[in-house]
């Protein structure tokens, strides 16, 4: 579902997201949001009715931007080689702007405040796993990789690729080597395993 916003609504939603990022939902008051957006607090209520509605629309709006980007990153050509696909995914995720990665941080914090809606982080995970499963099923059907459970292989790749980058970008953990070297080593372990020959 695409959320359509007019200019004022978009300013308010962006301001809300900036404040949520910096201070969390509980400290994101409509007064602060209005000041950040450069509008009157009455305008915030007129456009969004209440803070909860504004927060939900803000999350949904930014979440959709991220999901659209992830769909593009994990999309593939039918003739794309496995190593090329995985390396490109890793590099493109590593190069996502901080602003787009921030929705992942908000989604991870959303886990603590479970709502009736499906958790944002679960939706992000499902989007990526579905793409991986589709890609690996094609690779198996084409005889490019041996027959394994494509969902399990997708989960393995998701764990390494996505979670390493989340630690790297959100929590400022340092990956010892730059993204290309890291992805090359990951692919070597994936293809060759850890068993001594």
Written description of the protein model:
- With 197 residues, the chain is mostly helical.
- It folds into 2 domains: 1-62, Homeodomain-like (Arc Repressor Mutant, subunit A, Orthogonal Bundle); 74-197, Tetracycline Repressor, domain 2.
- Helix content is 70%, strand content 0%.
- The radius of gyration is 20 Å and the shape is elongated.
- The model has no long low-confidence stretch (mean pLDDT 83).
What would the keywords be for this entry?
single chain; 197 residues; mainly alpha; Arc Repressor Mutant, subunit A; Tetracycline Repressor, domain 2; 2 domains; 9 helices; 70% helix
Number of helices: 9
The biggest sheet amounts to: none
What would you report as the Rg, rounded to the nearest angstrom? 20 Å
CATH structural architecture of the largest domain: Orthogonal Bundle
First-last Cα distance = 51 Å
Structural class: mainly alpha
CATH level-3 fold name of the largest domain:
Tetracycline Repressor, domain 2
In helices, the fraction of residues equals over 70%
Overview in brief:
GO terms for molecular function: DNA binding. The protein contains 9 helices and no strands.
Structural topology:
Layout: H1 7-23, H2 30-37, H3 41-48, H4 51-73, H5 82-94, H6 98-110, H7 120-141, H8 150-169, H9 179-192
């Amino acid at each position: 579902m695409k959320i359509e916003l007019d200019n004022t609504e978009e300013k308010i939603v962006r301001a809300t997201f900036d404040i949520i990022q910096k201070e969390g939902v509980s400290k994101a008051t409509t007064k602060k949001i209005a000041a950040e957006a450069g509008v009157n607090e009455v305008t915030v209520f007129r456009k969004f009715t209440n803070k909860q509605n504004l927060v939900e629309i803000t999350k949904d709006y930014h979440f959709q931007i991220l999901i659209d980007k992830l769909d593009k990153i994990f999309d593939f050509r039918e003739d794309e080689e496995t190593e090329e696909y995985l390396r490109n995914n890793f590099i493109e995720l590593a190069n996502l702007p901080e602003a787009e990665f921030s929705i992942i941080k908000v989604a991870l914090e959303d886990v603590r405040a479970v709502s009736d809606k499906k958790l944002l982080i679960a939706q992000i995970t499902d989007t990526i796993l579905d793409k991986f499963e589709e890609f690996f099923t094609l690779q198996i059907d084409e005889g490019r990789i041996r027959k394994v459970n494509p969902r399990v292989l997708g989960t393995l790749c998701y764990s390494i690729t996505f979670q390493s980058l989340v630690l790297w970008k959100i929590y400022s953990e340092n990956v010892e080597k730059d993204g290309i070297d890291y992805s090359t080593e990951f692919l070597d372990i994936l293809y060759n395993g850890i068993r001594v020959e």
